[in-house]
Specification:
Blueprint lengths: L1 E6 L15 E5 L6 H7 L9 E4 L2 E2 L15 E5 L6
Parallel strand pairs: 1-5
Antiparallel strand pairs: 1-2, 3-4, 3-5
């Protein structure tokens, strides 16, 4: 199934080569969980701080079980620092 991924800040380097800006459409297996997509993209889990599916927050405890559906958008931000 196809989903849209949006990666931000330092995570953009993990996007596929055909990504436009910080967005790409990728193919994942049917029933893939959020964590499966994170592994597929080789994203370091410790850098996946804020995770949203279609704008809805997915807590770290739900990422192994929350299944993606075709056409959904997965957005991931790293931890933010500053002062």
């Amino acid at each position: 199934m196809k989903i849209t991924i949006k990666l931000f800040a330092v995570l953009t380097k993990y996007l596929p080569a055909d990504a436009f800006r910080n967005v790409a459409e990728i193919e994942v297996p049917d029933g893939a969980a959020v964590q499966d997509v994170i592994h597929h993209l080789k994203l370091p889990s410790e850098h996946c701080h804020l995770v949203l599916v279609d704008g809805i927050y997915i807590a770290p405890s739900e990422r192994e079980t929350h299944q993606m559906e075709s056409g959904q958008a997965l957005a991931i931000w790293p931890p933010v620092a500053g002062g």
